[in-house]
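Quick check before the chapter quiz. The format below is the same one you will see on the exam, so make sure you can read both the input and the output lines.
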Amino acid sequence: MPPSSRPFPRFIADASVEGRPYGRWEERLREAFATECTALASEAGAPLDPMTVKWFPDRSWGARVYVPATGRAAEPTTDEDGEQVLAEYYGWVSFDPGENADEPADLRARADFTDVTAEDNPDWKIDLNDDVIGAWRTDGGRGGELTLIWGLPLVRGAVAATAELEGETIDQSPVVDGRFTLIAVDAVRGFGDDIYLELKLWDRSVRELAAESLYAEGEPDSEDEAG
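Here is the expected output.
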């Protein structure tokens, strides 16, 4: 086959292997995530309620395992319109898995929050979160942002999620317990117009159920978004 004119990296992350964390290991992950959320409590209006934390399937990239999470504030606060809102925290904990019988080490966490939630947006079909965790570079100054994406299908029957660049699938994940995690290059530059990811949900008959961009329409340069 001839060389590709668009050598986008495909399927660069390992599939989920650990399953949902539990026991003492879950406590360590939750503590790391909650600690990262503490600095946001004043701005969010209330601290994280640690017992609301939900874990998403882990994915591995760059010799680290990423475990995304979401959680709710302990109590509601009032937004600028005078409405009561319950902020949602979102982020991830990553770690060095070690080798053989080694204990996971070097836990790192990142968190943010939003008051724009699925409950207030019944038209949403996917509840998405994302964060840039690295970079992809190729010749001629071209490249993109390596992005961790995790979400909840809000439509019935979803069994798989894919990440696409201009119709080419570059990552995929099963929907496990109503949750999925993807790692894919986004905001690709240097191949003409900038190219942005599209996330899709599929049912058992490989029928498309929903499609969503990581960006609000007309705002491709906005920062990480929830939903």
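If your answer matched, good. Residues 23-213 form one domain.
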